[in-house]
Design a protein that fits this description.
alpha+beta; four-stranded antiparallel β-sheet; 183 residues; 3 helices; 11 strands; 28% helix
Length: 183
């Protein structure tokens, strides 16, 4: 996420998405009028901002502050993944394992980021019910890389399908994931 200030206005922008104006709720807390999301800035003991926390969809996503050179390097890597249109090695297997563990009611939280583990714990009963209704998990097909650099998969079940966006951590854990079910 890029954060910028123009005069008295604060703007945020996620890779591949439009710029969004943020409005203050407190000294370090902001909200956007166009999306249901809030952000909070976290500071160190000297008052320097060290990270941003995005509160959206029941999740808290932490983003460490980086300098311009590191941000450019990160955006270049994402753009290269989008151009190559290849999945992160191991992401399909990690997604299959995640879905199967949710269905069984026994997710391996050690294979997830802290944020995804917290969201999974909170949403587990509903996810387990939904995937049980869909029936046996069948093939999972890579369909592309989204504008944020996340792998996109189509998961087929006996009675439907779901589209998944998966972000892998460098250590092979799932950093974040979200899905939408096809009717």
């Amino acid at each position: 996420m890029t954060v910028s200030r123009e005069n008295e206005h604060l703007w945020t922008q996620l890779q591949g998405q439009p710029r969004v104006e943020e409005f203050p709720e407190g000294p370090r807390d902001f909200f956007a009028k166009v999306v249901d999301a809030q952000i909070a800035f976290v500071s160190d003991s000297q008052g320097r901002v060290t990270e941003l926390v995005l509160h959206q969809g029941g999740q808290d996503i932490h983003a460490r502050r980086v300098n311009d050179a590191k941000a450019k390097q990160m955006f270049d890597a994402i753009n290269a993944r989008i151009r190559k249109n290849v999945p992160v090695p191991g992401s399909e297997e990690a997604l299959r394992r995640y879905i199967q563990e949710v269905v069984s009611g026994k997710p391996n939280y050690d294979q997830m980021s802290a944020d995804l583990a917290a969201a999974t714990r909170q949403q587990l009963p509903g996810m387990q019910k939904r995937f049980t209704e869909l029936g046996a998990l069948g093939p999972i097909k890579f369909t592309g890389v989204d504008t944020g650099g996340w792998d996109i998969y189509q998961a087929k079940f006996a009675h439907g399908s779901s589209e998944w966006h998966v972000e892998m951590a460098s250590d092979g854990r799932i950093n974040n994931a979200w899905y939408s079910s096809a009717p």
